[in-house]
Design a protein that fits this description.
This protein is α+β, with helices and mostly antiparallel strands and 229 residues long. The protein has a single domain, classed as CNF1/YfiH-like putative cysteine hydrolases, CATH 3.60.140.10. Strands 1-2-3-15-7-4 form a 6-stranded mixed sheet, covered by helices on one side. Strand 12 and strand 13 form a beta hairpin. The relative contact order is 0.19.
Protein backbone atom coordinates (compact mmCIF):
# COMPACT_ATOMS: atom_id res chain seq x y z
CA UNK A 1 0.00 0.00 0.00
CA UNK A 2 1.35 3.40 -0.96
CA UNK A 3 2.19 5.66 1.96
CA UNK A 4 -0.34 8.42 2.57
CA UNK A 5 1.46 10.95 4.76
CA UNK A 6 -0.14 14.08 6.19
CA UNK A 7 1.99 16.88 7.64
CA UNK A 8 0.25 19.37 9.90
CA UNK A 9 1.80 22.01 12.17
CA UNK A 10 4.99 19.89 12.57
CA UNK A 11 2.93 16.79 13.39
CA UNK A 12 3.04 13.83 11.01
CA UNK A 13 0.32 11.25 10.32
CA UNK A 14 -0.11 8.26 8.03
CA UNK A 15 -3.45 6.95 6.74
CA UNK A 16 -3.43 3.16 7.09
CA UNK A 17 -6.97 2.31 5.99
CA UNK A 18 -9.81 4.20 4.32
CA UNK A 19 -13.02 2.54 5.55
CA UNK A 20 -13.14 2.63 8.46
CA UNK A 21 -10.54 5.38 8.57
CA UNK A 22 -7.44 4.26 10.47
CA UNK A 23 -4.63 6.76 11.02
CA UNK A 24 -1.39 6.60 12.99
CA UNK A 25 0.48 9.57 14.46
CA UNK A 26 4.15 9.27 13.51
CA UNK A 27 7.36 10.77 14.83
CA UNK A 28 7.68 14.40 13.78
CA UNK A 29 9.11 17.63 15.11
CA UNK A 30 6.03 17.54 17.35
CA UNK A 31 4.74 14.29 18.86
CA UNK A 32 1.02 13.74 19.38
CA UNK A 33 1.38 11.53 22.46
CA UNK A 34 3.33 14.31 24.21
CA UNK A 35 0.52 16.82 23.69
CA UNK A 36 -1.95 17.07 26.54
CA UNK A 37 -5.43 15.62 26.17
CA UNK A 38 -7.03 18.97 25.34
CA UNK A 39 -4.53 19.74 22.59
CA UNK A 40 -4.71 16.24 21.10
CA UNK A 41 -8.46 16.67 20.73
CA UNK A 42 -8.07 20.15 19.25
CA UNK A 43 -5.46 19.04 16.71
CA UNK A 44 -7.30 15.94 15.50
CA UNK A 45 -10.77 17.46 15.49
CA UNK A 46 -9.54 20.33 13.32
CA UNK A 47 -7.34 18.31 10.96
CA UNK A 48 -9.82 15.50 10.29
CA UNK A 49 -13.09 17.38 10.83
CA UNK A 50 -14.07 15.17 13.77
CA UNK A 51 -16.82 15.72 16.31
CA UNK A 52 -14.67 14.32 19.13
CA UNK A 53 -11.52 12.35 19.95
CA UNK A 54 -10.86 10.12 22.96
CA UNK A 55 -8.07 7.85 24.14
CA UNK A 56 -7.67 6.06 27.44
CA UNK A 57 -5.43 4.98 30.30
CA UNK A 58 -4.26 1.49 29.32
CA UNK A 59 -2.86 -1.24 31.58
CA UNK A 60 -2.66 -4.38 29.38
CA UNK A 61 -6.07 -5.46 30.64
CA UNK A 62 -9.27 -6.44 28.83
CA UNK A 63 -11.68 -3.63 29.76
CA UNK A 64 -13.47 -2.23 26.69
CA UNK A 65 -15.04 1.23 26.65
CA UNK A 66 -18.65 1.47 25.43
CA UNK A 67 -18.89 -2.33 25.56
CA UNK A 68 -18.47 -3.30 29.22
CA UNK A 69 -21.00 -2.30 31.85
CA UNK A 70 -19.96 0.24 34.48
CA UNK A 71 -17.12 2.76 34.55
CA UNK A 72 -13.50 1.62 34.75
CA UNK A 73 -10.25 3.45 35.46
CA UNK A 74 -8.43 1.80 32.55
CA UNK A 75 -9.54 0.65 29.11
CA UNK A 76 -7.53 -1.38 26.60
CA UNK A 77 -10.24 -1.33 23.98
CA UNK A 78 -13.25 0.56 22.72
CA UNK A 79 -16.38 0.22 20.60
CA UNK A 80 -17.36 2.98 18.16
CA UNK A 81 -20.79 3.24 16.55
CA UNK A 82 -21.19 7.00 15.97
CA UNK A 83 -19.79 8.74 12.90
CA UNK A 84 -16.99 11.29 13.13
CA UNK A 85 -16.23 10.36 16.75
CA UNK A 86 -12.68 9.03 16.82
CA UNK A 87 -10.94 6.92 19.45
CA UNK A 88 -7.31 5.90 19.72
CA UNK A 89 -4.93 3.27 21.04
CA UNK A 90 -1.49 4.03 22.47
CA UNK A 91 1.24 1.49 21.69
CA UNK A 92 5.02 1.21 21.67
CA UNK A 93 5.39 -2.39 20.35
CA UNK A 94 1.97 -3.95 21.04
CA UNK A 95 -0.57 -4.39 18.24
CA UNK A 96 -3.31 -1.81 17.69
CA UNK A 97 -6.01 -4.17 16.40
CA UNK A 98 -9.16 -2.91 14.69
CA UNK A 99 -12.26 -5.00 13.94
CA UNK A 100 -15.37 -4.08 11.96
CA UNK A 101 -18.43 -5.58 10.28
CA UNK A 102 -19.47 -5.72 6.63
CA UNK A 103 -21.76 -2.71 7.00
CA UNK A 104 -18.89 -0.72 8.53
CA UNK A 105 -21.29 0.76 11.09
CA UNK A 106 -19.23 -0.35 14.10
CA UNK A 107 -15.53 -0.67 14.82
CA UNK A 108 -13.65 -2.04 17.81
CA UNK A 109 -10.13 -1.00 18.72
CA UNK A 110 -8.09 -3.37 20.91
CA UNK A 111 -4.67 -2.87 22.50
CA UNK A 112 -3.11 -6.30 21.98
CA UNK A 113 0.10 -7.12 23.78
CA UNK A 114 0.81 -10.67 24.84
CA UNK A 115 -0.93 -10.16 28.20
CA UNK A 116 -4.17 -8.92 26.70
CA UNK A 117 -4.16 -11.62 24.03
CA UNK A 118 -3.55 -14.42 26.55
CA UNK A 119 -6.19 -13.03 28.89
CA UNK A 120 -8.78 -13.09 26.12
CA UNK A 121 -9.43 -9.54 24.94
CA UNK A 122 -10.00 -10.70 21.34
CA UNK A 123 -12.46 -13.51 22.03
CA UNK A 124 -14.18 -11.36 24.65
CA UNK A 125 -15.28 -9.13 21.77
CA UNK A 126 -15.84 -11.76 19.10
CA UNK A 127 -17.97 -14.00 21.33
CA UNK A 128 -20.20 -11.11 22.47
CA UNK A 129 -23.47 -9.91 20.95
CA UNK A 130 -21.70 -6.73 19.77
CA UNK A 131 -19.00 -8.78 18.09
CA UNK A 132 -20.87 -11.61 16.42
CA UNK A 133 -21.06 -9.85 13.03
CA UNK A 134 -17.43 -8.67 12.91
CA UNK A 135 -15.81 -9.79 9.68
CA UNK A 136 -12.57 -7.87 9.11
CA UNK A 137 -9.42 -7.01 11.03
CA UNK A 138 -6.52 -4.61 10.59
CA UNK A 139 -3.28 -5.05 12.55
CA UNK A 140 -1.36 -1.80 12.95
CA UNK A 141 2.41 -1.36 13.36
CA UNK A 142 3.99 -3.42 16.15
CA UNK A 143 7.19 -5.24 17.04
CA UNK A 144 8.00 -7.97 14.54
CA UNK A 145 8.84 -11.54 15.45
CA UNK A 146 12.50 -11.03 14.55
CA UNK A 147 12.78 -8.40 17.31
CA UNK A 148 10.59 -9.94 20.02
CA UNK A 149 12.70 -12.32 22.09
CA UNK A 150 10.73 -14.01 24.88
CA UNK A 151 11.49 -16.10 27.93
CA UNK A 152 10.41 -19.69 28.56
CA UNK A 153 7.89 -18.72 31.25
CA UNK A 154 5.90 -16.78 28.65
CA UNK A 155 6.06 -19.76 26.31
CA UNK A 156 4.58 -21.91 29.10
CA UNK A 157 1.77 -19.37 29.52
CA UNK A 158 1.04 -19.55 25.80
CA UNK A 159 0.89 -23.33 25.86
CA UNK A 160 -1.46 -23.29 28.85
CA UNK A 161 -3.69 -20.89 26.90
CA UNK A 162 -3.82 -23.44 24.03
CA UNK A 163 -1.91 -21.43 21.42
CA UNK A 164 -0.14 -23.35 18.66
CA UNK A 165 3.37 -22.28 19.62
CA UNK A 166 4.89 -24.22 16.71
CA UNK A 167 3.51 -21.47 14.46
CA UNK A 168 3.96 -18.52 16.82
CA UNK A 169 7.57 -19.11 17.84
CA UNK A 170 10.90 -19.52 16.09
CA UNK A 171 14.13 -20.61 17.79
CA UNK A 172 17.48 -19.06 16.93
CA UNK A 173 20.42 -20.60 18.73
CA UNK A 174 19.17 -20.69 22.34
CA UNK A 175 16.62 -17.88 22.04
CA UNK A 176 12.92 -17.88 21.17
CA UNK A 177 11.13 -15.16 19.19
CA UNK A 178 7.39 -14.60 19.30
CA UNK A 179 4.96 -13.39 16.61
CA UNK A 180 2.20 -11.29 18.17
CA UNK A 181 0.56 -11.25 14.75
CA UNK A 182 0.33 -15.05 14.75
CA UNK A 183 -1.27 -15.06 18.20
CA UNK A 184 -3.91 -12.65 16.90
CA UNK A 185 -4.33 -14.66 13.70
CA UNK A 186 -5.08 -17.82 15.66
CA UNK A 187 -7.73 -16.05 17.74
CA UNK A 188 -9.30 -14.31 14.74
CA UNK A 189 -9.31 -17.50 12.68
CA UNK A 190 -11.44 -19.20 15.34
CA UNK A 191 -14.18 -16.68 14.50
CA UNK A 192 -13.59 -16.56 10.71
CA UNK A 193 -12.41 -12.94 10.81
CA UNK A 194 -10.32 -11.90 7.79
CA UNK A 195 -7.12 -9.90 8.32
CA UNK A 196 -7.05 -7.40 5.45
CA UNK A 197 -3.39 -6.36 5.64
CA UNK A 198 -0.83 -9.05 4.89
CA UNK A 199 1.91 -7.37 6.92
CA UNK A 200 2.47 -4.51 9.33
CA UNK A 201 5.46 -2.25 9.80
CA UNK A 202 7.80 -3.10 12.65
CA UNK A 203 7.90 -0.52 15.44
CA UNK A 204 11.40 -1.71 16.45
CA UNK A 205 12.92 -1.40 12.97
CA UNK A 206 11.22 1.82 11.82
CA UNK A 207 13.18 4.11 14.13
CA UNK A 208 12.63 7.10 11.86
CA UNK A 209 8.83 7.02 12.21
CA UNK A 210 7.72 4.78 15.12
CA UNK A 211 8.36 4.47 18.86
CA UNK A 212 9.48 1.16 20.38
CA UNK A 213 9.83 0.33 24.05
CA UNK A 214 12.13 -2.58 23.30
CA UNK A 215 14.40 -0.44 21.16
CA UNK A 216 14.48 2.39 23.70
CA UNK A 217 14.97 -0.04 26.63
CA UNK A 218 13.36 2.62 28.79
CA UNK A 219 10.17 4.64 28.99
CA UNK A 220 9.37 6.14 25.60
CA UNK A 221 6.65 8.09 23.81
CA UNK A 222 3.72 6.20 22.30
CA UNK A 223 2.47 5.66 18.81
CA UNK A 224 -1.22 6.61 18.70
CA UNK A 225 -3.39 4.81 16.16
CA UNK A 226 -6.95 6.05 15.92
CA UNK A 227 -10.10 5.29 13.95
CA UNK A 228 -13.51 6.64 13.12
CA UNK A 229 -16.57 5.82 11.03
Amino acid sequence: MEEKIINYDEFKFEILNEKPKIVIALKGKKILSKANEKNRKKILNKLFNLKSYTDFNQNHGINIFNHDEGDQKNYDGFLLTEKKKAMGLKTADCIPLFLWNKKVDKVFGLHCGWKGIINGIIEKVLSSDNGKDLAYAFLGPHVSQANFEVRKDLISNLERANFDTSKALVKKKQSFYLSLRELCRQKLNNFSVEIINKKSECSYEKEDKLFSLRRAKAKTSNNITFTWL
